């Protein structure tokens, strides 16, 4: 039997009796990162990186959680587990699993570009590699982060010169902080949606440096917003909450902005292609760096991507999982985090 198998609860290591990012409650869960589709409530025991733990605790509440450092080995019934940087968001990890020379890597979500906030991606050699394919089509090719942020700051500068408010959307954990880190504070003041500011507070307490931000509240005079920027969650757009900013220009930062029509569907005036996932070339590079002959594609363009890998001579398998990539954080599906975001918006 393979060291890792896939069942209706998630990725399972029978010998150690643990799951990686299970989507149904289990006894012992190893968690790659804090996004809603990978870190779910209801498990009896959680293990994650020390850097990921504060946000996971904030999102899931009172859970039994232990932490490891990157590279630290935990041995369970002879199976060696270690967590290595995935580059996706702060604290995100790939999980390396080894037993008697058989090595698997469950990558969770990952990206190769170093964003300056997340721990930089570390390639891990293995025979079996579990990968996402959120943007697993050749059309997805990212522009370097510095160029995207320059475009965003130019847009904000132009909006400010027109006496309008810039509203920039990005999901609360990961994307929002990456945007904040790249904003030019000489242009104006940064305001934040409540769900984003709650996450900022958690990250600041663990030593993550972010620029000064001000939480949007009812007490703020509406005349204070023009010329400045509001960083909001995608779910806030189209809600009554947005009306307080008056004449505003809305920008959306997402890998989906590559596609024609995506900006309109997000209710945005401007689209900026910025993703916390790999583009097509990076996915192929990451797989090559592992040296793996066996690749398991868990979410995204799974059928197309796995077919392409097979054509390149790899043993690639398409898997049906409940991971959703970037959609998990930007769609409103009634999950606990979305409800928390809506409650925050209603209170502002």
TrEMBL record:
Residue ranges, compositional bias (Basic and acidic residues): 330-348
Molecular function (Gene Ontology), one example: exonuclease activity
EC number: 3.1.-.-
Keyword annotations: Exonuclease, Hydrolase, Ligase, Nuclease
Entries under InterPro entries matching the protein: MBL, RibonucZ/Hydroxyglut_hydro, Xnuc_lig_assoc
Transmembrane segments: none
Region annotated Disordered, chain positions: 329-348
NCBIfam families assigned to the protein according to its UniProt record, in alphabetical order: Xnuc_lig_assoc (TIGR04122)
Protein name (database record): Ligase-associated DNA damage response exonuclease
UniProt source species: Neolewinella litorea
Highest classification ranks of the organism: Bacteria, Pseudomonadati, Bacteroidota, Saprospiria, Saprospirales
């Amino acid at each position: 039997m393979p060291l890792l198998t896939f069942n209706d609860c998630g990725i399972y290591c029978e010998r150690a009796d643990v799951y990686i990012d299970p989507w149904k409650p289990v006894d012992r869960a190893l968690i790659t990162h804090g996004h809603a589709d990978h870190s779910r409530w209801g498990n009896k025991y959680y293990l994650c990186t020390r850097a990921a733990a504060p946000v996971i605790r904030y999102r899931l509440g009172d859970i039994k959680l232990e932490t490891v450092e990157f590279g630290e080995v935990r041995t369970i019934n002879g199976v060696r587990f270690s967590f290595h940087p995935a580059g996706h968001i702060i604290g995100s990890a790939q999980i390396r699993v080894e037993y008697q020379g058989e090595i698997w890597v469950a990558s969770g979500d990952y990206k190769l570009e170093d964003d300056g906030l997340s721990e930089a991606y570390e390639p891990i050699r293995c025979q079996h590699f579990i990968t996402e394919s959120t943007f697993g089509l050749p059309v997805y090719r990212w522009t370097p982060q510095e160029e995207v942020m320059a475009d965003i700051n130019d847009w904000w500068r132009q909006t400010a010169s027109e006496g309008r408010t810039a509203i920039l959307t990005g999901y609360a954990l990961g994307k929002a902080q990456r945007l904040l880190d790249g904003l030019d504070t000489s242009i104006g003041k940064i305001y934040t949606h409540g769900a984003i500011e709650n996450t900022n507070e958690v990250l600041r307490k663990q030593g993550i440096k972010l620029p000064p931000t001000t939480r949007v509240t009812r007490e703020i005079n509406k005349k204070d917003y023009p010329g400045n920027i509001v960083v909001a969650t995608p779910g806030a757009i189209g809600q009554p909450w947005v009306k307080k900013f008056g004449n505003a220009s809305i920008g959306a930062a997402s890998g989906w902005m590559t596609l024609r029509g995506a900006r309109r569907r997000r209710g945005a005036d401007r689209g900026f292609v910025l993703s916390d996932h790999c583009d097509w070339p990076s996915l192929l590079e990451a797989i090559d760096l592992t040296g793996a002959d066996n690749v398991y594609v868990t979410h995204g363009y799974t059928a197309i991507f796995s077919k392409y890998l097979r054509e390149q001579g790899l043993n690639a398998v398409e898997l049906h999982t409940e991971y959703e990539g970037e959609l998990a954080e930007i769609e409103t599906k009634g999950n606990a985090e979305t409800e928390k975001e809506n409650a925050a918006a209603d209170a502002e």
